[in-house]
Design brief:
Blueprint (H helix, E strand, L loop, with lengths): L1 H22 L9 E7 L6 H4 L9 H7 L1 E7 L7 H10 L3 H4 L5 E4 L4 E4 L29 H8 L6 E5 L2 H8 L4 E6 L4 E3 L10 H8 L10 E2 L5 H8 L19 E2 L9 H6 L4 H17 L9 E7 L1 H9 L4 H24 L5 E7 L7 H6 L6 E2 L1 H16 L5 E4 L4 E3 L1 H6 L4 H13 L4 E6 H5 L7 H9 L8 E5 L4 E2 L18 H4 E7 L6 E3 L3 E2 L3 H9 L19
Parallel strand pairs: 1-10, 1-11, 2-19, 2-20, 5-6, 5-10, 12-17
Antiparallel strand pairs: 2-18, 3-4, 6-7, 8-9, 11-18, 13-14, 15-16
Helix pairs in contact: 4-7, 11-13, 12-13, 15-17
The structure holds zinc ion.
Zinc ion (ZN) binds next to helix 12.
Length: 557
């Protein structure tokens, strides 16, 4: 009797499945193509603030039809592009990968150096450079791209695209294939670390000279000005940056101050919406030429849209320009998603959308609203530490280097005065914490011994600390204060990011595809969970030392 019942059940299930099959296109068993879109500098609230102005099939495709995780955050100190991309695409933090920031002080070089420097590799079209970014040799551990390549016996492709060398390379890992728009050349390139030469289709793409076509182009608002004033305020505001010679108010005309396309123009182009068009056009070409998603072996495409970051740095995250970039990115993605539908198919494509970090509002604008905020030059911070150590131990040059990544003490001075590093670190941290602009300062010794309190900030410090690269004290700015950042030459204008505060670490995270259970998910998510989740969806091995875990609740049965 049980048998008969079971048989009927089985038949009923078969009939049910048949009826489902007749009304819905069955998804491919696994995604054929995973497309991970990383918007460089995109705050979580942008989707909410401007959501009603979006078109039907851009961001809204994922917001309305996908899994939208509303509390996705990074748990690291230096919320910037290199660590952000690294966490998304490897599922690990810098204490394992070594990518603690975009650049950091190097004791042996006695100066700041950038991530990914490799004198043994060169960029196509450029002379080799001893301090140029050229490979991911220093990146420890594997990435999503590496694992996909290995799991498919190198039949699956993993292509990454950006307007920043480091975003493309970090996302590619060791055996993915990165391409990026290189502003110093005005075209797309890659490194000899990843391939022997650029493939013919990339050379043909470059021969079209698409960047030149936007020379002198005017960037005007997409919608009437009143819409922008209503939501984010007036266009002309204190603290905005104009170092690309295109002004701080609409309309922005992009020439880089030149009469014809040249290096300054190719750089200025990165600060416009047309840079995203260029990247997405390159992505379309890559999908066609590399036949991504055309067979049963899964492929991976990672697109990092860099222009949003440059615009955010120049005008601040609350500017009309960032609002307009957001609306334009929405429309650009809608076009691109339409292309994916045609070329690969909605039932075969897994879409993931997120960001590498947020941004700090321009300090002068925050201060005008009555919230304490300021730019904090590095000089006075150094002075505080020098004075405290001079008073305690006698005159010396105690500070070798300081920036937002860390304070690096002069070890020779510590030896001369026969002190322990631990006590000098401690006094330095206390001197920094006495400044209103510094919320907290963690010492190397406390981190190495695991002696920090059990707090979110401490966890972030452990995640960002690498013994060979980090400083002796890690300062954390008071929220809304900005420790000046030489890297982008941001001194008196513009803004930056790189602190473990919500405006920098809270980003959108959305998954879309027939394998995803749609919904608005409020559970906290660590950004290290992205790679394990994609690996699970693709059915591939995960990076061996991953920190993150699979977001099982968003995956359908
Ligand atoms: Zn940035």
């Amino acid at each position: 009797m049980y048998k008969i019942h079971a048989g009927r059940m089985a038949m009923a299930i078969v009939l049910l499945m048949a009826s489902v099959a007749s009304t819905h296109a069955q998804p491919a068993a696994k995604p054929r193509l995973a497309v991970l879109v990383i918007i460089d500098q995109f705050r979580h609230e942008n989707l909410k603030k401007f959501g009603d102005l979006f078109v039907e099939d851009g961001f809204r495709r994922l917001m309305d039809g996908g899994a939208w995780m509303t509390d996705a955050r990074y748990s690291h100190l230096h919320a910037s592009t290199s660590p952000g991309h690294n966490v998304i695409t490897s599922g690990m933090y810098a204490y394992k990968t070594g990518i603690i920031a975009n650049s950091w002080y190097d004791r042996s070089w006695r100066k700041r150096r950038r991530s990914l420097v490799d004198p043994d590799s060169h960029l196509f079209g450029k002379d080799p450079s001893p301090d140029g970014r050229a490979s991911t040799k220093e990146l420890q551990g594997t990435t999503l791209a590496d694992e996909l390549r290995m799991a498919t016996n190198f039949r699956g492709k993993a292509i990454t695209i950006s307007a920043k060398d480091y975003s493309a390379m970090i996302s590619a890992g060791k055996i993915g294939t990165p391409y990026w728009y290189e502003a110093s050349l005005g075209r797309f390139t890659s490194s000899s670390f990843f391939m022997d030469d650029l493939p013919p289709w990339v050379k043909q793409f470059n021969a079209r000279k698409l960047p030149d076509k936007s020379f002198g182009r005017t960037w005007e608002r997409l919608l009437p000005e009143a819409e922008y004033v209503k939501r984010v305020g007036i266009d002309d505001r204190v603290g905005e940056e104009d170092n690309r010679k295109s002004g701080t108010t609409f309309p922005h005309v992009t020439t880089g101050g030149l009469d014809a396309p040249g290096a300054a123009y190719y750089n200025a182009l990165k600060h416009t919406p047309w840079s995203n068009d260029l990247e997405l056009e390159f992505a379309r070409q890559a999908i066609i030429e590399e036949q991504l998603g055309q067979d049963d072996v899964p492929d991976l495409l990672i697109i990092s849209l860099s222009a949003n970051d440059y615009v955010g740095h120049d005008y601040g995250p609350l500017s009309q320009e960032v609002m307009d970039m957001t609306l334009r990115t929405d429309r650009q993605l809608a076009d691109f998603f339409g292309f994916l539908d045609q070329q690969v198919g909605r039932d075969k494509t897994l879409l993931i959308l997120t960001a590498d970090h947020g941004a700090l509002p321009i300090p002068e604008q925050t201060a005008m609203k009555g919230i304490p905020a300021a730019r904090v030059p590095e000089g006075p911070l150094t002075e505080r530490v020098e004075q405290a150590l001079d008073a305690a131990y006698g005159d010396d040059g105690w500070v070798e280097f300081i920036d937002k990544v860390g304070l690096y003490l002069n070890y020779e001075a510590i030896e001369r005065h026969q002190l322990t590093r631990a006590e000098v670190e401690q006094l330095s941290a206390e001197a920094l914490e006495a400044a209103p602009s510094i919320l907290k300062a963690f010492t190397r010794t406390h981190i190495e011994r695991g002696q920090l309190p059990d707090t979110n900030l401490a966890r972030a410090a452990y995640h960002s600390f690498h013994p060979d690269k980090s400083g002796d004290v890690m300062p954390i700015a008071t929220p809304y204060y900005m420790i000046l950042d030489d890297e982008y030459s941001i001194t008196t204008y513009g803004t930056t990011h790189g602190m473990p505060h919500d405006y920098d670490i809270h980003v959108p995270l959305l998954f879309y595809g027939p394998w995803i259970k749609p919904g608005y998910y409020r559970l906290p998510v660590d950004m290290a969970d992205v790679t394990p989740t994609i690996c699970e969806l693709l059915g591939i091995t995960m990076p061996a030392t991953r920190d993150g875990q699979v977001l099982g609740n968003i995956i359908g049965d």
